[in-house]
Write a structure and sequence with these properties.
2 copies of one chain form a homodimer.
Chain A: H1 2-11, H2 22-26, H3 28-41, E1 55-59, E2 62-65, E3 70-73, H4 86-96, H5 108-118, E4 127-131, H6 134-149, E5 153-157, H7 166-170, E6 185-188, H8 193-196, H9 200-217, E7 222-228, H10 244-253, E8 257-261, E9 286-289, E10 300-304, H11 306-315, H12 326-341, H13 344-362, E11 369-375, E12 378-383, H14 393-405, E13 408-409, E14 411-413, E15 419-422, H15 430-445
Parallel strand pairs in A: 3-13, 5-6, 5-7, 7-8, 8-9
Antiparallel strand pairs in A: 1-2, 2-3, 4-10, 9-10, 11-12, 12-15, 14-15
Helix pairs in contact in A: 4-12, 5-12, 6-11, 9-10, 13-15
Pfam family, one (chains A, B): Aminotran_3
Protein name (chains A, B): Aminotransferase class III-fold pyridoxal phosphate-dependent enzyme
Cofactor (chains A, B): pyridoxal 5'-phosphate
C-alpha cells in the first residue's frame, strides 16, 4: 500500500521532511507562501508540482501565475467550458446580486435549469436532486441504491475514486493509503484486454457477476455496480463502447442498481455524447453529476427514476441547503448554453482525435509513449520504459514536471501513476493541442 | 414516528394527494409552477407554506415575490450578513471573472481567507479543511473523531440534525421518518430544566456520561459528543451559558472528542461571541462550519487541531474540489468583513434582546406565547394551548401561515414543531423586529 503514497507524490509538491524550502530552490516568496498554506491547511495540504504554482488568473485553457507566466491547462476539467467563460461569469454576476437562497421557494432559474438539465436524459430518468458536489451525489446514490435493494454491497473498479464522504470513501479503493475498503465493497479490474482478453465486455460482466456472488456469499447483499463511464482513476479506460451494457445487466439480474458516475465524462467530454453512459447503449438507474456542472461554482446532482426517490422520501427525504441555489443554477444553465453555442462537444471530438493522431505519429520516435486510451478530450497516455515497455511512473512524474517548466499543466492517473491524463477545458484549440504534442515530443526526444 | 411526517407538513406545502391545485386556491400561475417543481424534483420536492412563494429578489432582510409583494425574512440564516450584501456581491463578481479553481495551487484569496478565518479561533484550533457544506463538514468531523478515538459511537441530542450524508444522517435522529438511528448512536434530551431540573449543566453532563457508558456496554466504543452549540432542531436551547463545558469534559474523560457544530450559531449570531462554544467557556476538539459562512455561496469548513489532521492525512488525506475555491473564499472573506464593518454581532445582541423584551411584554395578553429561549438573533418561541399551556403545533403552523399572509416569513423547530424559530439575517433592524412583534400580537389577539 506504500505505493499509493508515492503516487500522490508523483504529482504533489513533497519536499523531504524538514527541508529548507528557500535553499531547496523555491525562492523566498514562494517558500513563504508554501509555509502559509501548510500552516493553515496542516497535514491535509497538497500542492501540485515540484515548484507549486502561484496562480492569479485564468481564461479559456490558460492559467496565469503571479510572475506573468502563462500555462496551458490540460488538467482542469472543472472549468469545462473554459476558465472565466463570459457567459458563466455574466450569469453568476447577475444572479448573485438578485437572489441566492435555498430551493424551498419557487425560483425561476432553479426550475428552468432543472427542466433544461433533465431534457438531456433519456426516460425513465425524470427526477433530479441537486447537491453541491460529486461526493454528495454519490453519497445520495448509495443511500438510494441501498434502500431500494435492501443490500449494502457495492462493486467498483480496483482503483476507483468516487468522492470524499465517509460512505463514498468506502467505495473508493484509491483513497486508502493503508489497508483497503470494507468487506461489503468488492473490486473488479478495469476494462482492458490485459485483464479480460479480447472479449472485454464479456469478461468485465463476468467479473462483476463474480464479485456480486462473492458479496452474497459473505452475506452482504448487493446494492449497486458503481463506475465512471470512462474509468478515470484506473488509468482512463473508455473502450470498447458498449462494454458497460452486459455488466449493468448482470447487476440488475442480481437485484442491484447500475449507478453511472458522470462526474468525469459527463457534459460532453467524450466528444460524441452528453453522457458517458450513452456510448454504452445503456440507461443507468442513477446518474451522479459534479465537477464540470457549474464550471467551478459548487453544483452537483443525482438524476434518477421517480420510483427510486419515492420510498427514500418516505423514509428520509432529502434537502440540501446550497444544492441548486439560484447562483449555482444560473451557472449550470450558462454551462449548458455555452456547451451548445460554442460547439464544445464537437470540439472535444475533433481536438481529442487530433491529439490521439499526433501521439500515434510521435510514438515511433518516442518509445516512452505506450498505449493511448480514451474518448474526446479525456485521454490517458501510458508512459513506459524504453527498454522493456514496462510502466514507468517515475518517467511520468519527470514528464509532468518537465512539461510544467515548458508552461504546460498535466496530471497522472492509474494505479501506478504512469498514465498522463489529458483532461483540459473543452475549449482547447487545435493550436493549443499541437503545442502540447510539440512540447511532449521535444522533451521525449531530449 | 408518524409525528415527524406531520411536523414536516407544519411548514410545508402539502395538499391532499390528487388535489386540484388550481381549485385548491393557488391560481393557475402558481399551480403551474408547483407542478413544474414536482415534476422535476419528484418525491423529494418540498416547498414552504400553504401558498408557496414565487421569489424573484432579496435584499437585506426582505424577500420580494413575483407579484411585487415584500416579505420580512425571519427564517433565513444563510444570507447571514443580509441578502445581496453589496460587499459579498462585489467580491463574488470580481473573483468569478478572475479565477475560480481548486486549492492545489497557491491562490492569494484562499490563503488570505484561511488565515483570517483561523484568527477567530482559540489555540489549539490551528488548521482548516475547507468543504462545501455543513454536511460535508460534519461527515469529515466524524471520520476524524473515529480515527482518533478508535470508537464508532456518537452521542447527539434527541432531535439533532447535523446534515444529509449517509454518515451524518446516522447521527441526525430528526431525519428518520421511520425507525431511528443505528445502535452506535445514543441520544440525550436537550438542555432544559424539564429534563434536568435546576442543574441543567450537571444533569446534561451526567446524561452524556450515561450515554457513553451505554455505548461502551454495547461494545461500540465512543468517538464523539456532537452538538449544536445552540441546540437548534431540538427547539432552540441556549442556556445556561457554560452548560456544555462539563459535558465536553465527560466526553474527553471517556476517550472521545467534543465536536461543536457551529453551522447554526456561528459567525456572530449569538450576539456576544463569534462562536457558540465561546459562550460555554470550552474549546472544542473539532468545529464544523457551514450555512452562513459564504452568505449563500457553498462554503463549509472543519477547524481542528493539527494533531487530529495528521494521522488522517496518513490514512486517507482529504481533498475537496470545490472546497475553498477562490469564489467561495472571496465570499467568505467579504462575510467576515461585513460582520465587523456593519457591527452585526452587536446588532444581533441588541435586536435579539429587543425581540425577547417585546415578547415578554406581549405575553400577558397572549397566553399562546409560552417559553422564549435563545441568544442574540436565534430565538425559539414556544406556542402553547391557551387552556392548559400544552405544546400546540397546530397553533404554530397556523401562526406561520398567518404571518406569511401578513408578509412575514418564519419557521418552526423542536420535536413537536411547536416552537417558532426566529433566525433572520443579522442585519434585521429594530423597526423590522417591531413589525414582527406587532404582527404576531395582532394575530394572537385576533
Amino acid at each position: 500500500m506504500e505505493r499509493k503514497k508515492e503516487i500522490l507524490a508523483l504529482n504533489a509538491f513533497a519536499p523531504a521532511p524538514g527541508a529548507d524550502l528557500v535553499s531547496a530552490g523555491l525562492g523566498e516568496d514562494l517558500a513563504h507562501r508554501v509555509e502559509r498554506r501548510r500552516r493553515s491547511f496542516g497535514a491535509t495540504s497538497v500542492l501540485f508540482y515540484d515548484r507549486p504554482l502561484h496562480v492569479v488568473a485564468a481564461r479559456g485553457a490558460t492559467l496565469t501565475t503571479a510572475d506573468g507566466a502563462r500555462y496551458l491547462d490540460l488538467y482542469n476539467n472543472v472549468p469545462s467550458v473554459g476558465h472565466g467563460h463570459p457567459k458563466v461569469v455574466a450569469a453568476v454576476r447577475a444572479q448573485v446580486g438578485q437572489l441566492n437562497i435555498h430551493s424551498r421557494y419557487l425560483i425561476d432559474v432553479v426550475d428552468d435549469y432543472a427542466e433544461r438539465l433533465l431534457a438531456h436524459f433519456p426516460a425513465p430518468l425524470a427526477n433530479v436532486a441537486f447537491t453541491c458536489t460529486g461526493s454528495e451525489s454519490n453519497d445520495l446514490a448509495l443511500r438510494l441504491a441501498r434502500l431500494a435493494s435492501g443490500g449494502r454491497g457495492v462493486v467498483v473498479s480496483e482503483s476507483a475514486y468516487h468522492g470524499n464522504t465517509a460512505a463514498v470513501t468506502e467505495v473508493s479503493p484509491s483513497s486508502y493509503r493503508k489497508g483497503g475498503p470494507p468487506s461489503f465493497v468488492r473490486t473488479v479490474p478495469p476494462p482492458h484486454p490485459a485483464h479480460y482478453g479480447a472479449d472485454v465486455a464479456g469478461g468485465f460482466a463476468r467479473a462483476v457477476a463474480a464479485a456480486i456472488n462473492a458479496l452474497k456469499a459473505h452475506g452482504h447483499g448487493f446494492a449497486a455496480l458503481l463506475v465512471d463511464t470512462i474509468f478515470s482513476s484506473d488509468g482512463v479506460h473508455a473502450d470498447p463502447p458498449g462494454f458497460l451494457a452486459p455488466a449493468a445487466a448482470a447487476a440488475r439480474a442480481a437485484g442491484g442498481l447500475f449507478i453511472a458516475d458522470e462526474v468525469q465524462p459527463g457534459f460532453g467530454r467524450t466528444g460524441t455524447n452528453m453522457w458517458g453512459f450513452a456510448r454504452h447503449g445503456v440507461v443507468p438507474d442513477i446518474v451522479t453529476l459534479g465537477k464540470p456542472m457549474g464550471n467551478g461554482i459548487a453544483l452537483g446532482a443525482v438524476v434518477t427514476r421517480p420510483d427510486l426517490l419515492a420510498p427514500f422520501a418516505d423514509a428520509f427525504g432529502y434537502f440540501n441547503t446550497f444544492g441548486g441555489s439560484p447562483v449555482a443554477c444560473a451557472a449550470g444553465l450558462a454551462v449548458l448554453e455555452a456547451l451548445a453555442e460554442d460547439g464544445l462537444m464537437e470540439n472535444a471530438r475533433t481536438v481529442g482525435a487530433r491529439i490521439a493522431a499526433r501521439l500515434a505519429d510521435l510514438r515511433p520516435a518516442c518509445p516512452a509513449i505506450g498505449e493511448v486510451r480514451g474518448a474526446g478530450l479525456y485521454l490517458g497516455i501510458d508512459i513506459v520504459a524504453r527498454a522493456d515497455g514496462r510502466p514507468d511512473p517515475e518517467g511520468a512524474s519527470g514528464l509532468i514536471n518537465a512539461l510544467r517548466t515548458r508552461g504546460i499543466l498535466i496530471g497522472a492517473a492509474g494505479p501506478l501513476g504512469h498514465t498522463l491524463k489529458v483532461r483540459p477545458p473543452l475549449c482547447l484549440t487545435a493550436d493549443e493541442a499541437d503545442s502540447f504534442i510539440d512540447a511532449l515530443g521535444a522533451i521525449l526526444r531530449g
